Each structure stands twice: as structure tokens, then as C-alpha cells.
UniProtKB/TrEMBL annotation:
InterPro entries cross-referenced by the UniProt entry: Cyt_P450, Cyt_P450_B, Cyt_P450_sf
Chain ranges passing through the membrane: none
Name of the protein in question: Cytochrome P450
Listed Pfam families: p450
UniProt xrefs under PANTHER family: CYTOCHROME P450 YJIB-RELATED, P450, PUTATIVE (EUROFUNG)-RELATED
Family: Belongs to the cytochrome P450 family.
GO MF annotations, alphabetized: heme binding; iron ion binding; monooxygenase activity; oxidoreductase activity, acting on paired donors, with incorporation or reduction of molecular oxygen
Amino acid sequence: MNQPISISKEVIKTQFNPNQYPLIYNYEAEINFSDLDIFTKGPPYEHFEKMRKLAPIYFHPAFLDDVEPGFWSLTRYKDIIKVSSDPKTFSSQIGTGTLMTLGSEERRHPKLWPSSIDHMLNLDGDLHINLRREHMPFFKPDYIADLRTKVQTKVTSLLDAMETKKEFNFVHEFSQQLPIFTLSEILGIPNEDRPKLVTWMEFLELAQYMQIEQLKLRANKTPNTDMINMFNNMVDEMFEYGRDILNSKRKNPSNDLLSAIANAELEGQKLSPEFLDGSWLLIIFAGNDTTRNTLSGAIKLLTENPDQKEKLLKNKDLMPNFLQECIRMVSPVMHMRRTSTCETQIGEQRIGKGEKIIMW
């Protein structure tokens, strides 16, 4: 019998290569797009615009001490559609579909790193489709209708609470609360456990910072050891809770998404413990973080563009397009990644095997 799939154990075997063919565009970006600090005040729109105009297929150098080579940076719509629609040529599975770099071994958190890889988004082709199909029967029309009613009631409750205040923090009092409520309803998380999800999310947001602090520790510098210990304890608690509830749902399934995940199969086998950890992390972090950031970003955009806010208030028919534009502009997921499986071409640029491609 085949061993259960574990992408994190296979992906480290992949050979990633620098560009093997001459560059079509003679361009050097003014900023380093792999530097997280660049994005702390929002997407650098003007730099993206310039790169798309002057080098829509740009080979970006590796960041500082990254052990992997650089990557192709795509900013043109038709190129992104081409790459994201062809998993045979541009794989998520052999190099992940999300991480810009796998990083050096000493930078990999023993639990967060494999869990950020062993999940559905990093599967290609039939494996991805079949696992997604296992979840779909859960989302029946009557269930969606019932969930919509619950969410609408929660939205009303949150807005009513804010209406009584002169000032409030929209992120804490709305953007953070609504996705956690919705996820908890979908997953079947007991009411008394839901505040834990809020705490875990806040700590997971610090993952990149904690990586730097732990590197300081190894380099005998002065890290914030209390923060490191608190972070690691929270990570342990989060995964322990996820394992307990998924094991419980595997033994005694009920009508919720966690039961569907716990009992899903890949190639005729139940998901491995690593894949269950990854599925748990994907749901509670990615499912929450994206919605929260979109909601917060939408309010920020309306505040910065009062003329658009006025149009929306006067014509609610604009709402569907407004929502799509918010997702596009806020970009709650800044990039996705693929790795070329063979020699190929994107637009005018030849691409070699094993080259990293980032789609913005």
C-alpha cells in the first residue's frame, strides 16, 4: 500500500534553478519585492505598475541570504492566467503554491513549516480536484441558506454594538469577529472555544517576526525569549486542539466541515497526520486572514476615496462590483507561486526547468 502523501517531505528534494535563458527585459526593480517590510504600509502599487510596464516578466534576484535562487515575477494578467491554468507545466506540488521560498533548514519552524505545505493548495491536478471534491457535498443549498441567515444576524449584532460608540476599532470589533464566527459555524467549533481562535490568529500573524527572533537566538544575539516561548506555546496549543478535534470527528463524524476533512481520502487513504495539521492551519488561518484583511481594506479604501463611497451609498447596485474591486485592490493574498516542470515559455520569455515563478 502506498504511503500517505506528505508534500513537505518531497518538496525539499526539488532542485530550484536560476534563470537558464537570456532575459528579454533589461530592467532592475527599485525595491526588493521579497522584503516583507516593503508591504507593511500596503501594496507598492506604483512599483508594480512600473514593473508591469517595463518588465512584465522580470527575473527577481534572491533576497539577501536566501538559499534558493531568485524567481520570475509576473504582473501581466494574461501571463498569470496562463501559468495558473496549467498545473502540468507550472506545479504547486513540487515547490509549493504559496511560499516564495522554502528557506534554510534552520529557519523552518518544526510545526508551522510542514503544515504550511501539507495541504490542498499545494496539490496538483487530480489530487487537488479529488480532495476538493471530498469537501463539496458538505456545502448543500439548504446548509448555505441557513449559514447565510446566521451570518446576517451576526453582522447586524456587530453593527448594532458599534453604533452605540463614538469611536471604535473596526478591525477588532468587526473584521476580526465576523470571519471567526463564520468559520466556527462551518467547522463546528464549540462556542466556548471560539475565543481561542482569535488569540491563535493574532500569534500566527507574528510568525515572520518570530522567525527572525529565533535566528537571533541561534546566532547568540539578544532575542525576545519570552515572546519566542509564548509564541511556541500558542502554536503547540493550536495544533493540539486541531488534532484532538479532527481525531474526534474521524471517530464520530457530524454534519460539519471538520468531519468532512477528517474523513477525506487521498488515493484511497485517510489523510496523514501531517496533512491533517496542514488542513487545520489552512482553514483557521487562511480562511480567517483573507476575509479579515479584505473587510478592513475595503473600509480603508472607502475612507481614502470618499467620492467612491458616496457613489456606493447612492447606488447599492454597485455593491457586487465594489466587492470584486476590493478583493483585487486589497489583495489579501499578495502572491502565489509555481515551479516549472519542464522547459517552456511565458510570453516572450523562455523559462527553464525548475525555475520559480511568482504571480502577483
